[in-house]
Amino acid sequence: MDANVITTTDLRKVYRSRGREVTALDGVDLAVREGEVFGVVGRSGAGKSTLIRCVNLLERPTAGTVEVAGRDLTALAGRSDRAPAALRAARAGIGMVFQHFNLLSSRTAQENVELPLEILGVHGRRTRAARARELLDLVGLSDDQARAYPGQLSGGQKQRVGIARALAGDPKVLLSDEATSALDPETTRSVLRLLRDLNRQLGLTVLLITHEMDVVKAVCDSAALMKGGRIVESGTVTELLATPGSELAGELFPVDGRASGPDRTVVDLTFHGDSATQPVISQLSRTYNVDVSILGAAIETVDGLQIGRMRIELPGRFEDNVVQIGHLRERGVQVDVADLTAGAEAVK
């Protein structure tokens, strides 16, 4: 995963309506590497969906550039209101999965998958049918489900049809716009496993938009946090967890718990790699004869890597615990000292 497959540079999108301007994207720089699953998270109105629609130019950026697989799509678009042939050809290499499936109710699952093949000019009804059945099988749908209409399918099955349809053009990039937000938790997990399997089997680069941190933990190699049309943090999940004061890491692995009284030091610890399997807290307590209070803890597995976060309380002020904190850092533990005064948290 070395080369960037998706790159946006100083991307801006301004909507104008009734004499007012609304800035949805405000100078977004994004880099998604080949073969990774990259999640963009943020609250409603942060600009996530506008960003992903600008990546395949369903929305025309007001300014900035979008490159996908080495091609500058913004240059291909030119100034014409109608996408030229070069842009349409480039879009064929980009699959798109939508939140509400966007299936044609009058077509069977198989016929929905055949539609983009027709648009792409794949000749021969039998050829299109065979390819559609192959894709539906790839996403785990049976022959009976292939013959069913969308109204006869569950939400998870509809989304699998949507994913099969997105793969019809043999894309190198798959875009997912809140693809699991309309699904129940169990179905969400199964669809995420499917996306990860397709990422690995087909070498797909996946850019997904979500407001759910569990989605990032379950499937993403890298992530970015958006606020107010800007990316405020980005990196691999491992890098973010190792970044002191990372807001995204804190939201991915929240740990609750507050200090019990004055003259106490509250420390947030992140364990990954070798430190996740070592008894560092008990060693700290024995070595320095200090009472360690555990205020909260969470353990998660991200792409096979066990990661733990813990909030502990040490007696005394920060100045009294410098040696103990250094002991933890020497053992590979990420240490953030929380300032909980006045109800706010900062990191030293």
TrEMBL record:
Domain ABC transporter: 6-253
UniProt entry tagged with the keyword Transmembrane: no
GO biological process annotation, one example: amino acid transport
Ranges annotated as spanning the membrane: none
Organism: Actinacidiphila rubida
Presence of the UniProt keyword Cell division in the record: no
One MF term in the entry's GO annotations: ATP hydrolysis activity
One Pfam family per UniProt: NIL
InterPro entries in the record: AAA+_ATPase, ABC_transporter-like_ATP-bd, ABC_transporter-like_CS, ACT-like_dom_sf, MetN_ABC, MetN_ABC_transporter-like, NIL_domain, P-loop_NTPase
Gene3D superfamilies to which the protein is assigned, alphabetical: 3.30.70.260, P-loop containing nucleotide triphosphate hydrolases
The protein's name in its UniProt record: D-methionine transport system ATP-binding protein
Keyword line: Amino-acid transport, ATP-binding, Cell membrane, Membrane, Nucleotide-binding, Translocase, Transport
